[in-house]
C-alpha cells in the first residue's frame, strides 16, 4: 500500500499539462475589507446622545445607591440578634445591594462604550516596545487620545458618577469585616481578644459527646471500626440561636473516629486522652478555620477541603501536607458510668486558625 501511495505522489509531482490544454487557475481569495461604517443613532442625533449619557450616569448612581443600601442593610438587620429572620434578611438585602451595585456598574460601562464612546475603526500597528523618551511620549499620546475618544475628561457627570460608584462598591465588603472582630463590652470582655475567644469552648469535664445536630449522646460501644462521627457538646443542642448557638458551635465542633488501639501513636502525656481506639479532634482547620470533615479510613488521614491540608489521626493529627501550621487540637475523652463518651476537659489549646499567633 505504501508503494502505491509513493507512486501516485510521484505521478502528481511529475505531471505537466499538454500544449494547448487549458488549465483553470483559481483566483486568490479576495479580501472583503471592513464593512461600510454605520453611524449609531447617538452619532446622528444629539438628543439621543444626551439620553445615553443620562442613562450611563443614572446607572452609576444606581450602583452607588446599591452599595449604600448594602451597608444600611448590615445595620438594619444585625445578625448578632441571633434571630433566624434577621439572619435571612441580612443575607438577602446585603446580597441584593451588592448585586445591584456591581450589575449597575457593568451595564453602565457597557452602555457607555456602545452608545457614547467613539465608534470608529482603528488599526493598531504592532512594534517592539522600547523604553526611550519617544516611546513614553507615544504612550502619553495614546492615553490622551483615549481620553478624548471616551469623553472621560469632558463628560463630568459620567466621570463623577463612575468614580463614586467604584469607591462605594467596596464599602459593603469593608462593612462586613466588622462582624469578624466584635468589640469587647462589659457583658463580653473577651470579644476583642481572639486568643481568649478561641481558648474556651463549651466542652468541660463530664460533658457528653452528642451527634450533630440532634444532640443524641454517643455510646462508645455503638462506634464501629473506621467510623467517623460529627460531634457537638450535648448541652449545645439546648441553646437557641439568640443565646449564641452558632458562635459556640463554630468553636466546639469535633470529629470522632475509631481505630484499633495499636494503630494510635500517642505522646506520653496524652495516653489517657483516647478510649479504646476512639479519638476526638477539633473539626476547625488550623489554617483558616474551614471544617475538616473528610476522613480516609484506610490511611487515617483527615483532609481539609478548602486548601488541602492533611492531618494524620494516628499521630496526634499532625500536619502531613498543606498550609496548616499546627496539628488539630485534641479533645480528651473517656466514658461515664453509663458507657457514654464524655469530655475530660476543654481543649488544652486554642482551636481554629493560627492567625492570632502572628503578633
Counting copies of identical and different chains, the oligomeric state is: single chain
Percentage of β-strand residues? 5-15%
**Cα Rg:** 34 Å
Please count the helical segments: 9
Distance between the termini: 77 Å
CATH topology of the largest domain: Rieske Iron-sulfur Protein
CATH architecture of the largest domain: 3-layer Sandwich
How many independent structural domains? 2
Which consecutive residue ranges, at least 5 long each, have pLDDT under 50? none
Shape: elongated
Return the string of H and E elements. Answer: HHHHHHHHEEHEEEEEEEE
Major sheet size, sense and barrel closure: 4 strands, antiparallel
- Order of adjacent strands in the largest pleated sheet: 1-2-3-4
CATH class of the largest domain reads: Mainly Beta
CATH homologous superfamily classification of the largest domain: Rieske [2Fe-2S] iron-sulphur domain
The proportion of residues forming helix, as a percent range, comes to: 25-40%
Mean pLDDT, rounded to whole units?
Answer: 84
- Per DSSP E runs of 2 or more residues, the count of β-strands stands at 10
Class based on secondary structure composition and strand pairing: alpha+beta
Family: Belongs to the Rieske iron-sulfur protein family.
Keywords: 2Fe-2S, Cell membrane, Disulfide bond, Electron transport, Iron, Iron-sulfur, Membrane, Metal-binding, Oxidoreductase, Respiratory chain, Transmembrane, Transmembrane helix, Transport
Protein name: Cytochrome bc1 complex Rieske iron-sulfur subunit
Region (Disordered): 1-21
Amino acid at each position: 500500500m505504501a508503494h502505491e501511495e509513493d507512486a501516485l505522489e510521484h505521478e502528481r509531482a511529475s505531471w505537466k499539462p499538454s500544449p494547448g490544454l487549458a488549465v483553470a487557475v483559481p483566483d486568490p481569495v479576495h479580501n472583503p475589507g471592513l464593512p461600510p461604517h454605520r453611524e449609531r443613532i447617538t452619532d446622528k442625533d444629539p438628543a439621543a446622545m444626551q439620553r445615553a449619557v443620562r442613562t450611563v450616569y443614572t446607572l452609576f448612581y444606581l450602583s452607588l445607591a446599591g452599595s449604600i443600601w448594602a451597608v444600611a442593610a448590615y445595620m438594619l438587620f444585625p445578625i448578632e440578634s441571633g434571630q433566624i429572620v434577621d439572619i435571612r434578611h441580612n443575607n438577602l438585602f446585603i446580597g441584593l445591594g451588592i448585586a445591584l451595585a456591581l450589575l449597575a456598574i457593568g451595564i453602565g460601562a457597557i452602555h457607555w462604550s456602545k452608545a457614547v464612546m467613539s465608534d470608529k475603526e482603528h488599526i493598531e500597528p504592532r512594534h517592539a516596545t522600547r523604553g526611550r523618551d519617544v516611546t513614553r511620549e507615544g504612550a502619553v499620546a495614546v492615553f490622551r487620545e483615549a481620553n478624548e475618544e471616551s469623553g472621560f475628561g469632558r463628560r463630568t457627570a459620567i466621570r463623577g458618577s463612575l468614580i463614586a460608584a467604584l469607591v462605594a462598591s467596596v464599602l459593603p465588603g469593608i462593612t462586613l469585616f466588622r462582624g469578624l472582630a466584635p468589640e469587647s463590652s462589659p457583658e463580653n470582655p473577651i470579644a476583642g481578644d481572639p486568643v481568649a475567644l478561641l481558648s474556651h469552648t463549651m466542652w468541660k469535664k463530664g460533658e457528653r459527646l452528642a451527634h450533630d445536630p440532634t444532640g443524641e449522646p454517643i455510646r462508645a460501644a455503638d462506634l464501629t471500626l473506621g467510623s467517623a462521627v460529627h460531634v457537638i457538646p450535648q448541652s449545645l443542642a439546648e441553646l437557641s440561636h439568640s443565646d449564641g448557638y452558632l458562635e459556640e458551635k463554630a468553636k466546639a465542633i469535633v470529629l470522632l473516629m475509631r481505630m484499633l488501639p495499636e494503630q494510635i501513636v500517642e505522646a506520653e502525656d496524652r495516653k489517657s486522652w483516647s478510649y479504646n481506639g476512639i479519638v476526638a479532634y477539633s473539626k476547625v482547620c488550623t489554617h483558616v478555620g474551614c471544617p475538616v470533615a473528610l476522613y480516609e479510613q484506610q490511611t487515617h488521614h483527615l483532609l481539609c477541603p478548602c486548601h488541602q491540608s492533611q492531618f494524620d489521626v494516628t499521630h496526634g493529627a499532625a500536619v502531613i501536607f498543606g498550609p496548616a501550621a499546627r496539628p488539630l487540637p485534641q479533645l480528651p475523652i473517656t466514658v461515664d458510668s453509663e458507657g457514654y463518651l464524655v469530655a475530660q476537659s476543654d481543649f488544652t489549646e486554642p482551636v481554629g486558625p493560627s492567625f492570632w499567633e502572628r503578633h
